[in-house]
Task: inverse folding
């Protein structure tokens, strides 16, 4: 059985006051028996958020990490530092990192490895642009992104890792993939992993991300291979985020 996971990606938003209020509202609204909930706060607020969610079921996540563990890398934040602040998860290879900051497939694979080295569970993002989808290249792109990570890391490292399918054209655009589109790619991801190790594939949680909201979450989460959601803008509103968590709780997991 795969336990559903809902991760909020707050991106570069909020103030110390607003993120701690948001974390508090989400932590107190999370019901027992629901999905696992991870809040990926801006790095500078991880400590403040950790204090607020201490003792709750909500877990802490980061949005990015360095591929290095320590040293002369001005401005970078390492996996061991994130762990030290209480993070359990870290997003790796978000399309905004790839597109705006030029992160390559190879660097994303290195970051995945860096996360595993220090015991962080990576949430590795894959997904095609609109041009790639229209050119019929969706599977080729997702395969390339994922295989670069798999080839550098042993497949066993995917045991506690999470994959997020986030079509770039659906992120922050209000344009969500249809449940069928999400399912098609996410089944492809699982099959790709299963071709190497069926047991790991069966246990792998694959999230959908890209304009997930309270009103479309249930239909997405009803799909066989949609094990949860990576939520951007809707995670900045506690009420809406908790409704998405409720939709994930209702997900019937059939294996
Ligand atoms: P969005 O962002 O929900 O605002 O589309 C999702 C993400 O970037 O992870």
Result:
């Amino acid at each position: 059985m795969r336990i559903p996971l809902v991760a909020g990606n707050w991106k570069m938003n909020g103030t110390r006051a607003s993120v701690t209020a948001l974390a508090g509202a989400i932590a107190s609204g999370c019901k027992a028996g629901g999905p696992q909930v991870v809040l990926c706060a801006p790095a500078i607020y991880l400590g403040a958020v950790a204090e607020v969610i201490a003792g709750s079921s909500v877990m802490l996540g980061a949005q990015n990490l360095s591929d290095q563990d320590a040293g002369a890398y001005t401005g970078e934040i390492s996996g061991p530092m994130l762990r030290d602040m209480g993070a359990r998860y870290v997003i790796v290879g978000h399309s905004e990192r790839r597109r705006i900051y030029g992160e390559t497939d190879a660097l994303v694979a290195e970051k995945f490895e860096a996360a595993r080295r220090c015991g962080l569970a990576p949430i590795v993002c894959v997904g095609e642009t609109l041009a790639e989808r229209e050119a019929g290249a969706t599977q080729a792109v997702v395969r390339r992104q994922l295989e670069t990570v798999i080839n550098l890391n042993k497949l066993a490292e995917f045991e506690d890792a999470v994959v997020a399918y986030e079509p770039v054209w659906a992120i922050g655009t209000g344009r969500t993939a249809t449940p069928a589109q999400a399912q098609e790619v996410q089944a492809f991801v699982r099959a790709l992993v299963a071709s190497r190790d069926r047991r790991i594939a069966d246990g792998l949680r694959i999230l959908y991300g890209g304009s997930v909201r309270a009103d479309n979450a249930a239909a997405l989460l009803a799909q066989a291979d949609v094990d949860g959601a990576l939520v951007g803008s809707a995670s900045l509103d506690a009420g809406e985020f908790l409704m998405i968590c409720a939709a994930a709780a209702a997900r019937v997991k059939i294996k």
Remarks:
- The chain has eleven helices and eight strands.
- The mean pLDDT is 96.
